[in-house]
Amino acid sequence: MLDITTNFRFTIVPDVQTWVDKEVFPRFLAVGLKRYALIMSTQIVSQISIEQTMEEGAGNEFQTRYFDDEIEARKWLNK
């Protein structure tokens, strides 16, 4: 799965992180997600927020990598 967050401009608050962990990640796993590539925001606060959400939730049940370049992300997803 490829997620482009280049226009992401807000902090994911703890309540939303919990919601993602309970509602979104189980759906990812249910469809067999193995790899999740994110093209990261240029906003450092947004980057940290996204990484924290991924690392503290069920996101550790599939491979997650962060990229600046969409071509590199797609190469990794297609390995």
What features would you describe in this structure?
It contains 3 helices and 3 strands, in the order βαβαβα. The chain has a 3-stranded parallel beta sheet, with helices on one face. The chain has 79 residues and is of the alpha/beta class. The mean pLDDT is 91. The chain has one domain (2-77). It has helices spanning 14-30, 44-56, 70-77; strands at 2-4, 35-39, 63-67.
Mean pLDDT: 91
Oligomer: single chain
C-alpha-based Rg, rounded: 12 Å
Strand count, sense and barrel status of the largest sheet are: 3 strands, parallel
Instruction: Report the total helices.
Output: 3
How many DSSP E strands? 3
Give the terminus-to-terminus CA distance: 13 Å
Could you name the key traits of this structure?
alpha/beta; 79 residues; 3-stranded parallel beta sheet; single chain; 3 strands; flat
